[in-house]
Amino acid sequence: MEKKMKSIGFIGVGKMATAIISGLDKDKFNIFISGRDLEKTQKQATELQVLAMASHEELVEKSDFVVLSVKPQVLAKITDEILPALTADKTIISIAAGYTLSDLAHLMTLENMPILRVMPNINAKIQRSTSAIVRNEFVSDDNYQFAKEIFENIGSVHEVAEKDFSAFTAIAGSSPAFIYIFIDALARAGVFHGLSKEQATAIVADTVAASAEMVIQSGENPWTLVDQVSSPGGTTVAGVVSLEQNRFVGTVIDSITATIEKEKALK
Ligand SMILES: NC(=O)c1ccc[n+]([C@@H]2O[C@H](COP(=O)([O-])OP(=O)(O)OC[C@H]3O[C@@H](n4cnc5c(N)ncnc54)[C@H](OP(=O)(O)O)[C@@H]3O)[C@@H](O)[C@H]2O)c1
C-alpha cells in the first residue's frame, strides 16, 4: 500500500518559513501556507509551489504538522484562532523565540498536545541553518524523526535540552552577527595593510569557512589546531598572544552572556 504523504502547514510566511519551505522537496510533502493577507499568501504560494489556505483554521485541519512561524508577539492571537481545529493527532512545531514548551502547551489548552520547539538560525536562507530541537512527552518517536527531517533539509539539527535553549540561541542564533564582525575586523586589518576591502573580505570569508570545516572534519579541540599553526617563536603565536593580552576570549564570552541576559530581561 502506498504511504500517505505527510502534510506540513506553515502559519506565517516570512523570512524563516520561506527559507524552510524552499529547502523542502515538494514531491515528498504536501505543503500548505496561511498568512495575514490572502492575496499576498496566494502569490507566495505560487512562487514557493505550495498551496495557500484561506484561514489558519483550515490549514490546521489539513495538516499533520503545523509550523508556527509568526513573530512571538502574534503567537497568542494565532493559537486562539486555531484552537477549534486543534486535535492531539496533529503535531505543533514552534520556531518562536522565547516560548517554552510549557508556554506553548498553556496556549494550546489541550493537555496532551504534541509540541516541538525548534530554533533555526539565519543561515536557513542558504540551507545551512544550525537548528536546535526539543519535544514534549506527547510527540511520538516517528513524528520526532519526521520533524527533525524537516529541519535537516535546511541544515544541521542538534538535540538540545530545553534548559540550554537560551545558550543555544546565543551561540548559534545570534553568533552569526558576531562572526560577521570578526570577518569584517580581519578584512579591515587587510585593508589597513594594503588590500582592497572586497578582496580582503573574500579571502577572510573563505578562510573562516575552511577553518570551521577543519574543526568539524578533524574532530580536534580548536586549541590543538591553534597549537598546530603556532611555530615556536613564530609569527602566529605573536598574534595569538596579542589577542590574549587584549582579552579576546573573555570578551567573546561576555558578549554571549550579555545576549542570554537580554533574552531573560525581555520575558
Ligand atoms: N529570522 C531568524 O533568523 C529567526 C531565527 C530563529 C527563529 N526565528 C523565529 O521565526 C519566527 C518568524 O520569524 P521571521 O524572521 O520569519 O519573521 P518575519 O519575516 O517577520 O515573518 C513573520 C510572518 O508572519 C506574518 N504574520 C504577521 N501576522 C500574522 C497573522 N496574524 N497571521 C499570519 N501571519 C502573520 C507576517 O506577515 P506580514 O509581513 O504580511 O505582516 C510575516 O510574513 C519568529 O517567531 C522568530 O522568533 C527567526
UniProtKB/TrEMBL annotation:
Which PROSITE patterns does the record match to this protein?
P5CR (PS00521)
Question: Domain Pyrroline-5-carboxylate reductase dimerisation spans what residues?
Answer: 162-265
What catalytic reaction does the record list? L-proline + NAD(+) = (S)-1-pyrroline-5-carboxylate + NADH + 2 H(+); L-proline + NADP(+) = (S)-1-pyrroline-5-carboxylate + NADPH + 2 H(+)
Any keyword NADP? yes
Q: Which GO terms describe its cellular component?
A: cytoplasm
Which positions fall inside the Pyrroline-5-carboxylate reductase catalytic N-terminal domain?
8-98
This protein's UniProt keywords: Amino-acid biosynthesis, Cytoplasm, NADP, Oxidoreductase, Proline biosynthesis
Q: Name one GO biological process term.
A: L-proline biosynthetic process
Q: Give any Pfam family that matches.
A: P5CR_dimer
Q: Which domain of life is it from?
A: Bacteria
- Where is the protein situated, by its record's location annotation? Cytoplasm
Keyword set includes Ribosomal protein: no
EC code(s) of this entry? 1.5.1.2
Q: What is its main location?
A: cytoplasm
| SUPFAM superfamilies reported for this sequence | 6-phosphogluconate dehydrogenase C-terminal domain-like, NAD(P)-binding Rossmann-fold domains
Q: Where does NADP(+) bind?
A: I11, G12, V13, G14, K15, M16
Q: Which GO terms describe its molecular function?
A: pyrroline-5-carboxylate reductase activity
| Biological or metabolic pathway of the protein | Amino-acid biosynthesis; L-proline biosynthesis; L-proline from L-glutamate 5-semialdehyde: step 1/1
Q: Which InterPro entries match?
A: 6-PGluconate_DH-like_C_sf, NAD(P)-bd_dom_sf, P5C_Rdtase_cat_N, P5CR-like_CS, P5CR_dimer, Pyrroline-COOH_reductase
The family annotation for this protein states: Belongs to the pyrroline-5-carboxylate reductase family.
NCBIfam families, alphabetically?
Answer: proC
What this protein is reported to do is described as: Catalyzes the reduction of 1-pyrroline-5-carboxylate (PCA) to L-proline.
The name this protein carries in UniProt is: Pyrroline-5-carboxylate reductase
Q: Which organism is it from?
A: Lactococcus fujiensis JCM 16395
Q: Which classification does the entry list for the species?
A: Bacteria, Bacillati, Bacillota, Bacilli, Lactobacillales
| Gene (UniProt) | proC
